[in-house]
Structure formats: C-alpha cells, structure tokens
Design a protein that fits this description.
heterodimer, A: alpha/beta, five-stranded mixed β-sheet, two-stranded antiparallel ribbon, 5 helices, 7 strands, 19% strand, elongated, B: mainly alpha
Chain lengths: 177, 154
C-alpha cells in the first residue's frame, strides 16, 4: 500500500515547496549585516561638507538609516511615510544620500520637507557597498549598541511603519543599552 | 578643399570611435590581473538584475562593484578575500558557486545522494525480478515430458 502512496506523498511535498516559493519575493535578499555592527565609515554631511558623518552617530540610541536619492522614484513615493515617522519623534532617521547631486538633494528636502536628523553624502556609492545596498530606498533599523537589527528593502508604506517598524523601534528602545 | 573634407570625415570617425571605446571599456585592468578579474566577475551575481553576473550587468551597482574588484586586485587581495568581501555585504546569494558549508551540503551532495538512492532501487528491482532458478524435474515428470514430445503430430 505504502509503495503506491509514496509518489503521491512526494508530489504533495513538492507542491508545498512550490507554494511557499510563490510568496517569496526574489528581489528581497536577506542582508548578512543583520545582527552585526554598523560598518565603519566617514562621509561629509549633506548640509555642511566640512562636518563628518560617521558610524558614531548610531551609538547610544535607537535610530534608522534610510538610503535615498532624488533620482530614485520609489524614494519620492516613500517620502511622506518618512515624514510621518519623523513627526512621531520616536527615533532619529538618518539619511544616506546615495549617488546624488548635493544641490538637488538640498532643494528636494527644502521643497518636500526634511524627515532626517542628519544626512551623509555618499557621492560615489562606496559606503553604500559596505552597507550592502543594492537598490534605493533601503531602510535599516539600528539598536542602541549600533547593531543593525532590521533591513527593509524598497519603499516603506504606512502599513510597514505601523506593523513592522514602529513596534520594532519600541521593542529596541526597551532593551538595555 | 578636397583635403579639408577628408580631414573632416576622419575627425568625425575619431569622435565616433572614441565615444564607443569609452562606453564599452570604462575600466582599465592591469594585464596581470585580467584573467582573475574576469573570472571573479563571472562568479558574482548582480543583485539589481539577479540573473546576471556583475560581468554582464549594465546596472550602476554592477559597475561600482567592478571598480571595487579591480581596486582590491590592485591592492593585492586574494580571490577568496574578494569573494568574502562580497558575501559579507550582499549575502551568500551573490555567489554563483555556493560555499561548501552545512547549509549547502544538500545542494552539493544531494545529486550524489539521489544517484546512490536510484542505484539502490535499481539493484533491488533487479534482485526481485531475477529469473526463477531452474527447478530439477523429477523422474516422473521427465518421463511425462518425453512422452508428450514423442507424441506424433498430425
């Protein structure tokens, strides 16, 4: 009896794998940086090139890093969500202005609002490589110790904010530093 | 006058030629690294256009990564160091040749496992269907057989 059932069972196991596969987005690749310290870097600030933005900004508080550029359409789509998060004032959002024109970036923030507590200007995209960035926008959630705890690839939606990002920020804020 | 025209044509050709060169070969790779450079690029996946290697892809990220690989080669990095550099940032997914580690044992050795399994099944099948051993006829049966064979056919 088992002999005849075996192919049927195997068939359904295969179906199970394929079914799970249907709901996986191949453009979202888990970052190996999760659970690791933020990469060491040093870049000029967007608003003032004389000042340095480094990994030290992320120590001692829960914060976010958003990778964006004015050339990036999905970033514009995401912008109101970032403004909403900034308004809630629960964690600073830092920006990595990725391969952008600094003048355009500043104009953009002035015109559409600035959700960022600070911006690093990565003109060449070299620091973005260290962060494993492969498509803007990307958002990292970083804990008090400066460890990357979460990475969101693609534009954040209000739903992501309510269901994923804000609960995570609250949880991380409760952790001992 | 004729000369001028010719010069002009040559000049235009020069412009066309140079722009083409600057598009297709944006990177100067030292000849001693060239083989390793191309081998490495063909082993790394471009995450923007996932089914292309960073050698094939035209995306900006692939271009940046080519620059990075070239830079690391110039700094004397080994192939493994460069592969690790990429995997540490973009994950093992970027490696077209996956590392041999517990997580990938099934991937590497699975086919051999299946081969062994199939061979085992084939052996079992052959054993089961082996022709039945010839049973010896009893004297009684032999007599009966010969009498049947001797029976005249009409």
């Amino acid at each position: 009896m088992f002999k005849y059932l075996l192919p049927v069972i195997l068939f359904f196991v295969l179906c199970g794998f394929l079914f799970v596969g249907l709901y996986k987005d191949p453009s979202k690749v888990d970052s190996p940086l999760i659970g690791k310290h933020v990469p060491i870097f040093s870049l000029p600030k967007l608003m003032n090139k004389e000042e340095v933005f480094s990994e030290k900004e992320f120590f001692g508080k829960v914060s976010l890093l958003n990778v964006w550029g004015t050339w990036c359409f999905a970033c514009k789509q995401e912008h109101p969500v970032l403004l909403e998060l900034a308004k809630q004032n629960i964690a600073p959002i830092y920006g990595l202005n990725y391969k952008d024109d600094s003048v355009q970036a500043k104009t953009y923030l002035r015109d559409f609002g600035n959700p960022f507590a600070g911006n690093a200007s990565d003109l060449e995209g070299r620091v973005a490589i260290d962060w494993g960035v492969y498509g803007a926008p990307e958002t990292f959630v970083i804990d008090k110790k400066g460890i990357i705890r979460h990475k969101h690839i693609g534009p954040l939606t209000m739903k992501d904010l309510q269901e994923e990002i804000i609960p995570l920020i609250k949880q991380l804020k409760n952790e001992a530093s | 006058m004729k000369h001028l025209k010719l010069y002009r044509i040559i000049l235009y050709l020069c412009i066309v030629f140079t722009t083409q060169v600057s598009l297709s070969a944006p990177l100067k790779v030292a000849p001693e690294y060239e083989d390793r450079y191309h081998a490495l690029l063909n082993e790394l996946r471009c995450l923007v256009c996932q089914n292309q290697t960073i050698a094939e892809s035209d995306s900006e990220l692939a271009n940046d990564l080519r620059v990075e690989v070239n830079k690391m080669l110039n700094q004397g990095a080994s192939d493994d160091e460069i592969i690790d550099f990429m995997a540490n940032r973009y994950g093992d997914f970027v490696l077209y040749k996956p590392l041999v580690q517990p997580k990938t044992y099934l991937l590497w050795f699975g086919p051999f496992l299946f081969l062994a399994l199939v061979l085992l099944l084939v052996l079992m099948f052959l054993k089961k269907n082996r022709p039945v051993s010839k049973a010896e006829l009893t004297d009684d049966e032999k007599q009966k057989l010969s009498s049947i064979l001797k029976e005249p056919k009409d």
